[in-house]
Design a protein that fits this description.
metal ion binding, hydrolase, 15% strand, eight-stranded parallel sheet, single chain, alpha/beta, 8 strands
Amino acid sequence: MAQTPAFNKPKVELHVHLDGFIKLETILYYAKGCREAIKRIAYEFVEMKAKEGVVYVEVRYSPHLLANSKVDPIPWNQAEGDLTPDEVVDLVNQGLQEGEQAFGVKVRSILCCMRHQPNWSLEVLELCKKYHQKTVVAIDLAGDETIEGSSLFPGHMQAYEGAVKSGIHRTVHAGEIGSSEIVRLAVDTLKTERVGHGYHTLEDEALYKRLLKENMHFEVCPWSSYLTGAWDPKTEHAVVRFKKDQANYSLNTDDPLIFKSTLDTDYQMTKRDMGFTEEEFKRLNINAAKSSFLPKEEKEELLERLYREYQWPPQAEGQVP
C-alpha cells in the first residue's frame, strides 16, 4: 500500500539538481552527450515533479558537466564530441517547456557555476543572460565548499558581479558542509539572494540573526543533509531552529536519484521526526513562492493559487512579503 503523503497539497521546490535526478533507465539507454537524452532527462524531471504534487519548481544544473565540446576540461573523461554548454541549455529548455505543457507544472531553471572550475563561470553568466526567462532565471555556485578560497576565485566573483549588473537572480550553495564564513561570503561578497542549505549559518549567531531580520531564504534539504553528513543526527537539525524562529525557508530534495528519495521523503522526515504540522508546511511553501525567482506577475499568480488551495488568506500566513 502506498504511503499517505505527509502534505497532500500543492508544493513549491527551489533546490533540486537535474543531474541528480536522472532516471537509471535513461542513463543506461543513452550515452552522455546525446541530444535526445538531454531533452528526455528534462522532460522526465517535470513528469516526476507533477507526480509529487509540485506546482512550481526551479531546477538547477551545470551546462558544462553535460557537455563534451567547447568545455575545458571535458568532464567525466569523455571523448570530445560536438555538444556544447550552449546547446545543453537549449535542449534542457526544450525538454522543460515540453514537460510544462504536458504535465501542467511551471518550471524554471538555474545554471550552476562549479567551485572547482572558475574558468567556466563567465560563460555560465553569458548563458544566463542569453536564455533569461527562456526557463533560465538565476545563477548558482555549487560544488565543494571545502576548496579553500573558492568563493573568492576571480571567475566566480566576476560572474556574480556581472549577474548583479545584468539583473540575473543569484543563489549560492553555502553552509552545507562549509562554515558560516562561507555563508557570509555568499551574502556579502557574491550578493546572493538565497542560501542553498545554510545549516552552518547557526555557528555564527550574529550572522544568523542578521539574515533572519533580512528575511534571507534558506533552501533546506533535510534527507540530503542526513545522508551526506551535513547534519549530525545526534544534534538538532537547523531546520528545527528555522521553524521555531519563523524563518524564511523551503523543503527540497537536492539530488533525488542519488538519495533514492522524493519530495515526500523530506516532508515525511520533518513531520515524523521534527514535529512539523500542515500549517508549517503551508507557511514554508508560501515563503518558497515569495522567494522564487519568478517575475512579479507570475509570482503573484502562484501565491494566489496557493492561498486558494490552502484556504489560507495572506494575513494568516504570518510573514509580510
